[in-house]
Predict the 3D structure of the following.
Amino acid sequence: MIEFRTVTKRFPDGTVAVDEFSLVIPARQTTVLVGSSGSGKTTLLRMINRMVDKTSGEIEIDGESIYRLNPVKLRRSIGYVMQNSGLLPHRKVIDNVATVPLLNGVSKADARQGALELLDTVGLDRSLADRYPSQLSGGQQQRVGVARGLAADPNILLMDEPFGAVDPIVRAELQQELIRIQRELGKTIVFVTHDIDEAFLLGDQVVLLEKGGRIAQEGTPAEILSKPANDFVATFIGADRGRRALSVEVVNGRNVVVDADGRPTGVLQ
């Protein structure tokens, strides 16, 4: 479990990125922080592994303050996946994945074997292990990035808009892969996105942020969709338009789901 208690981050230029933010992130679930630019979501994510330090407040993991921990050890114990994979271009795929285990003292043979097994986990063929990142597609690079984030078998995996730089088809594939991996591994995932559809697809808990890290609403996707807290939330999630506003029509004896414009979107089973 990760807990933020009245956390504020003020940068040297006076910008308040996060203002007295409090939240409990449950273990072994996916919590999605979603909001527009300036909502503080990436700052919040990076405060968990101390890539950004808070100005005030407290952050705890399983009841222990992260500020009592060595920041380097903390970062190596938490998986981190960024938008453009962040792979080292001069190192082969297998060595990119094995990076953190090697830093943690795992033997090279064991680290490389673990890296091969993680390629299986993220749906990549082992034949790609000896390629360099530039020889991979964008989707393959992101899968390698996820494998690297999982390499130290962390309890916590931080994901900063990891699928934002790939095309929609690949993005949908990666989203489904993440759902499968989470079902199998049960990590505590904190996922940042500006895409509300992605948030609702992936999140057990969704936290919708306004500017300065203020929580507009938190809850399950169903709770937020069924009862938006205010006009800001309703507008952000598109509660009154498109595929958000669905109804059922009976066509040839079957229940067909249609959107607000009358377009069929599926069939109720």
About this structure: The chain has a mean pLDDT of 93.
